[in-house]
Design a protein that fits this description.
It is built from twelve helices and six strands. By secondary structure, the protein is an alpha+beta fold. Helix 6 runs antiparallel to helix 7 and helix 8 crosses helix 10.
C-alpha cells in the first residue's frame, strides 16, 4: 500500500532543492573580510507569502475541486456503466422466474401423392350413407363404392407453449438471482470507492497546487534577497572591504537562485496543468485560491490505533465490495452444482391446426387441441462438467478471499501511515512556526552585524538560507497537515457519505 504522502513527495523535492541549493552556496563560501557599512537590504516581507496562502473571492476550495473532479472523472463514468450492466443482469435473473411462454406459426406445403384406397364399402344410393341399407318391408338396395381418405397438402399450425421450470426455481434461478444481486451490490460499492478515491486525489492535487504557488513566492523572495546581498557586496568591494572572490560567490548564489526560481515556475506550471486535467478544464483556465491556508488546522484527537483499525475494517467500501463479490461467487458455486441434477419442467401447449392430425379423417378444417404434462430432462454432459465448474468457483472464491485478506492488511498499513503522518504534520505546525520566528530574528541580527562589519557574507547567506528553509517548512507543514487529515479520513472510511455509497452512486456524471 502506497504511503499517503508519497503522492506529493516529488513536489516537495523541488522545494527542498531550493533550500539545498542555497545551503550549498553557503557552505562553499569562505570567511570574507567584513564589508564597510552600507545600506541594509530591506527585510523580507511575509505579506506576499501570506497573501498567497489567503483565500480570494471566487477561488477554488478543496471540496469544490473534489466535487468537480468526481463529476467529470472518466473512472467514475466507467464504474457507473459497470453498475448499469450489473443491474441489467439482475433484471435478467428476475425474468428467469417468469414461466417460459412461446408462440409459433407454421405453414407447410406437402407434395401431392396418390390418394390411398382402403377397399370398397356398401352404401345406399337413396340415402348416401351406410345406415338403413335394407329398410323394413322394403327392397334392399346397395351399391359398392371405393373408400378413399381425403388428402391435405396445405398444413397450417398455430401453437402456444408454456414451460414452468419447476426444478430451476430451487436449484438454478434463486442462485442466479443471488449471484446477480451480490454482483450489482459489489459494482455499486466499487463505484462509491472510485468516487471517494477521485475526491481524495483531487484534494491532494489542490493542496499541492497551493504548495507550488507558495514555493514560487519563496523562491522569488530568496532571489530578491540574494540580489540585495550582491549590491552590498559590490559596495564593499568598491571601498576595499570585500574581495573579488566574495563578489563572485554572491553572483553564483544569485545565478543559482535564478535557476531555482525557473524550476519553481516550471513545477507550478506542471501542477497547474494537472489541476486542469483533473477538473477537465481548457488549457487557458486559471485558478485562484479560495481556502485560507495561513493557519494550521486545530489538533485532532485520535483514538488508539487498534480502535482505528477496527473502524477502518468496518467502514471501507472496498472491503464491502469484496464481501459482495465473495457472496456472488458462493452463489455461482451453488448454481454450478445444479448441473448434478436433472431438470423438471411443467409444460402446456395449445394447438390450432388445419388440418389437425388428432381429428379423423384428416380434412382441411381448423381444430383446436391442447396438452399438459411434466418433463424430466437429464443432460449427461452437464453432470460431467459440473464438478469442474464447482472447482473453478471454489478456486475463484478462495482467490478473492485471499485478496480481501491482503486488502485488509493494506488498509491497516494505510491507517498506520496516515495516522503517523498526521501526528508528524501537527507536530511540525508548532515547531515550524517557532523555527520561522527564530530564522527571521537570526536574519535580522546577522544583517545588522553585516552592516556593522562584524559578520561575513557567508554568514549572512547562511541566515538567508535558514530563513528560506523555515518558510518552506512552514508551508509544507500547513499543506501536509491538510493532506494527512484527508488521507486519514479516507483510510478510516469516514469520507463515506452518511447515506452510503449506494446513494452516492446515484448522482449523475457529466
Amino acid at each position: 500500500m502506497r504511503h499517503p504522502a508519497h503522492g506529493s513527495a516529488w513536489r516537495r523535492a523541488a522545494a527542498v532543492g531550493l533550500v539545498l541549493g542555497l545551503a550549498a552556496v553557503a557552505r562553499a563560501q569562505a570567511a570574507a573580510p567584513p564589508p564597510a557599512p552600507a545600506e541594509a537590504p530591506p527585510p523580507l516581507s511575509e505579506d506576499r507569502l501570506e497573501a498567497t496562502l489567503r483565500a480570494q473571492r471566487g477561488g477554488l476550495r478543496a471540496d469544490d475541486v473534489a466535487r468537480r473532479a468526481e463529476l467529470t472523472s472518466p473512472d467514475v463514468r466507467a464504474r457507473q456503466r459497470a453498475v448499469d450492466a450489473a443491474r441489467a443482469r439482475v433484471d435478467q435473473a428476475v425474468l428467469g422466474f417468469v414461466p417460459r411462454l412461446t408462440g409459433s406459426a407454421r405453414y407447410v406445403r406437402q407434395s401431392e401423392i396418390p390418394v390411398p384406397v382402403l377397399g370398397n364399402i356398401v352404401v345406399s344410393p337413396l340415402t348416401g350413407n351406410l345406415a338403413n341399407i335394407c329398410p323394413p318391408g322394403g327392397p334392399c338396395l346397395a351399391v359398392s363404392a371405393p373408400f378413399q381418405f381425403p388428402l391435405a397438402v396445405d398444413l397450417y399450425t398455430l401453437q402456444a407453449g408454456l414451460q414452468v421450470p419447476v426444478s430451476d426455481y430451487v436449484l438454478r434461478l434463486s442462485q442466479s438471482y443471488a449471484a446477480a444481486s451480490h454482483s450489482a451490490s459489489a459494482a455499486r460499492y466499487n463505484e462509491g470507492a472510485t468516487r471517494l478515491a477521485v475526491q481524495r486525489d483531487a484534494k491532494r492535487i489542490f493542496y499541492n497546487w497551493a504548495r507550488t504557488r507558495a514555493s514560487v513566492v519563496v523562491a522569488e523572495q530568496a532571489l530578491a534577497t540574494a540580489r540585495e546581498h550582491l549590491k552590498d557586496v559590490n559596495a564593499a568591494f568598491h571601498v576595499g572591504t570585500a574581495s573579488k572572490a566574495d563578489v563572485l560567490r554572491v553572483e553564483s548564489q544569485v545565478a543559482g537562485s535564478e535557476l531555482l526560481v525557473e524550476r519553481a515556475h516550471n513545477l507550478a506550471a506542471v501542477v497547474d496543468e494537472q489541476l486542469r486535467i483533473v477538473l477537465h478544464d481548457p488549457p487557458a483556465a486559471r485558478y485562484a485560491l479560495g481556502e485560507d491556508l495561513t493557519d494550521g488546522l486545530p489538533p485532532q484527537g485520535a483514538a488508539p490505533l487498534p480502535d482505528l483499525y477496527g473502524e477502518a475494517l468496518g467502514r471501507r467500501v472496498e472491503l464491502r465490495a469484496l464481501d459482495e463479490s465473495l457472496a456472488a461467487l458462493r452463489a455461482s458455486r451453488r448454481l454450478a452444482a445444479a448441473g448434478y441434477y436433472p431438470r423438471l419442467d411443467a409444460v402446456a401447449n395449445l394447438y390450432r391446426s388445419n388440418p389437425n392430425p388428432r381429428y379423423f379423417p384428416i380434412i382441411g378444417v381448423w381444430h383446436t387441441t391442447w396438452d399438459v404434462g411434466v418433463q424430466l430432462t437429464w443432460t449427461v454432459n452437464d453432470t460431467l462438467t459440473a464438478p469442474s465448474q464447482v472447482r473453478d468457483a471454489l478456486a475463484r472464491t478462495a482467490e478473492l478471499a485471499a485478496q480481501r485478506a491482503a486488502l485488509a492488511d493494506g488498509i491497516r498499513m494505510e491507517v498506520m501511515q496516515a495516522y503517523t503522518s498526521l501526528r508528524e504534520a501537527e507536530f511540525a505546525l508548532a515547531t515550524t512556526a517557532r523555527q520561522l520566528q527564530a530564522a527571521q530574528e537570526s536574519y535580522r541580527v546577522r544583517r545588522d552585524l553585516f552592516r556593522a562589519g562584524r559578520a561575513t557574507s557567508a554568514e549572512l547567506t547562511d541566515a538567508e538560507t535558514d530563513l528560506v528553509r523555515a518558510r518552506l517548512d512552514l508551508i509544507n507543514a500547513r499543506i501536509d497537515a491538510r493532506i494527512a487529515r484527508i488521507s486519514l479520513e479516507h483510510a478510516l472510511g469516514r469520507d463515506v457519505p452518511a447515506a452510503g455509497p449506494r446513494a452516492q452512486a446515484s448522482s449523475p456524471s457529466r
